[in-house]
Amino acid sequence: MNAVLVVDKPAGLTSHDVVNRVRRILGQRSVGHLGTLDPLATGVLPLVVGNLTRLAQFYTSSEKTYEGTIRFGFATDTYDAEGEATGPMHSVDLSLEQLQELAARFRGVIRQMPPPFSAKKIRGVPAYKLARKKKDVKLEPVMVEIKEFTIESFEGDSAAFRTRVGSGTYMRSIAHDMGRELGCGGHLASLRRTEVGEFEIADAHTLEQVNEANDRGRREEIFLHPRKLLPQMPSVTAADDVAALVRSGRSVNLPEFSRAKMVKVFYGQNELIAIASRVAGTLFHPKIVLAAEAEWKVARVEG
Fold first, then answer.
1. Which of 60, 154, 204, 216 could pair covalently with 96 via S-S, beta carbons 3.0-4.6 A apart?
2. Within the chain, which residue ranges are assigned CATH 3.30.2350.10?
3. Cα–Cα distance, 105 to 168 (Å, whole number)
4. Pick from 97, 23, 33, 78: which is nearest to 188 by CA?
5. DSSP strands (E only) in 73-120
6. Which of 179, 288, 174 is closest to 233 using CA atoms?
7. 12-67 pLDDT tens trace
8. pTM across the whole model
9. Architecture in CATH of 64-196
10. Beta bridge mates, 154
C-alpha cells in the first residue's frame, strides 16, 4: 500500500503515537509522518504509507500555519501549558494594541532560542532528556523565519494568534519570549496546525474516522489524491514503455520538461511511480522509485 493520509491529531498524543495507531489500523508497518507536532498541539499531521515514506526528504523545509493562544502571567519550564510554572503568577495589564505591536517585532528572519524541552541535540543527546533530569541545557539560537504573526484578540490573560512560519520555528519559544519582553511571563496555552506544505485541515481525518473507513473497506476515500503532492514540481503521465523504464530505475527522455529540475512521474491518474531528476537536456533519471517493476507486475496479477 502506497498512500498519503492527513490526520487531525488530537491533543495528548505524540506524533509517533499517531503513527503507531495508524500502523495498527491499516495493518502497515511502513508509516511515517511529515513534521512533528508536540503532544499539546492538534491539527494537520500528514502521514506517508508504504514506499511514499521516501517522499519525506522533500518536506524538510515546509511552511506551516498555526492558530493558538498565549497565556500571560507566568512562564513554564516547557514553554507551554504542560510544564511547571517557573515563578509566581503576575497580574496582567495589557492591551490588544500593545500585543500587536510586540508581535510585529517577531516577524521576519529572527534568532530564536529553542525550548529546553525540545528534540534539539546537545552532544548527541536530545535536550528534553537533559531537561527532565534537571541538568543544564545549553542550546544555541537558530535563525528562523516568521512570515506572518498576528494577535487577533485578547481577553483576560490570553491572546489568540495566527501565524505562518518556516521550518524549525518553535511557537513555544515565541510565547515565552513575548512574556519575557512584557515582564509578566507567558507560555503557549494551545496550538492547532491548520496547514503544512500543501496539506490543509480540510484534508484531515480524525483517528476515529480513519478506523471507521478501514473497517468499512473504504480507506481509499480518506487517502489524499497523489496528484496533490509536491505541487511545485511538474508532473508527467507516462506511457507503458516509459513507465516500465522508470520502474526499473532507468533514465528516460522527457522532451516537454527541458527546464525542469525534477518531475513527478505518474502511471495513469492515480499512481505516482517516481520522482525523476534531470541529468542533462531532456534526459531524466529516477531519483526515487516509488513503485518498482516487480511490484507493479504483482499488483496487476493480483488485481
1. 154
2. 3-62+198-226, 64-196
3. 19
4. 78
5. 108-112
6. 288
7. 999 999 999 999 999 999 999 998 898 899 999 999 999 999 999 999 889 999 99
8. 0.87
9. 2-Layer Sandwich (3.30)
10. 159
